[in-house]
């Protein structure tokens, strides 16, 4: 007495007749966006609890802290540096 594929197809056909394809497409997009936002907020909350940055653009903590980080050093102007007049 479980749901078979035929039961699900009948329910889908009835939903198509009642709501139409445009409303169902919009509903699916909204549901997908909500799930995506929920997953990202859970991921951000887990990262906040672990003390690691989760936002895009932030540097991740190195897995191997004993190894040097390779990269290019560039000079930045900071407010502490004296400006030339």
Q: Helicity range of the residues?
A: 40-55%
Which band does the percent of strand residues land in?
A: under 5%
Mean pLDDT: 76
Low-pLDDT residue intervals, each spanning 5 or more residues: none
Describe this protein with a few key phrases.
85 residues
Please render the helix and strand layout as text.
Layout: H1 5-19, H2 21-50
Care to describe what's here?
With 85 residues, the chain is mainly alpha-helical. Helix content is 53%, strand content 0%. α1 (5-19) crosses α2. The chain is elongated, with a radius of gyration of 26 Å. The termini are far apart.
Compose a concise summary of this entry.
This protein has 85 residues and is mostly helical. The chain has two helices and no strands.
